[in-house]
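Supplementary Note 3. Input sequence used for the single-chain structure prediction.
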Amino acid sequence: MRTLCSSTLIGEFFVIGFAGLVAMKSDDLSMATVWTVCGIGMLLSVLLCGMIGRPGGVQLGWALQIALVVSGFVVPTMFFLGAVFAALWWASVHYGRKIDEAKAQWAAKASSEPDAA
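The predicted structure, written as discrete structure tokens, is reproduced below.
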């Protein structure tokens, strides 16, 4: 699960950065505000890569997904991209857990079999 979720989060790192570039063109927002918010989002996406296996890591990832969708009120394209990344996050968590379970079953089966040598 860790690999799939981390890949999604790194992709979000770049999307948040590009959304910041788009948001800079808004006359309603200062550059400092845009880059403070985007910087926090980008930092969070990188830090979450190391927190995936820890308690609350997946839930914080969901909070980031919600924030990405909500950022669509500033950069309308983010409604779509946020939904895409939320779907990718769901798939990463769902299929990552299935892969982890299959690996654990395989390891248990391999350790319970006697050596053929």
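The chain is about 80% helix and 0% strand. The CA atoms of residues 22 and 75 lie 7 Å apart.
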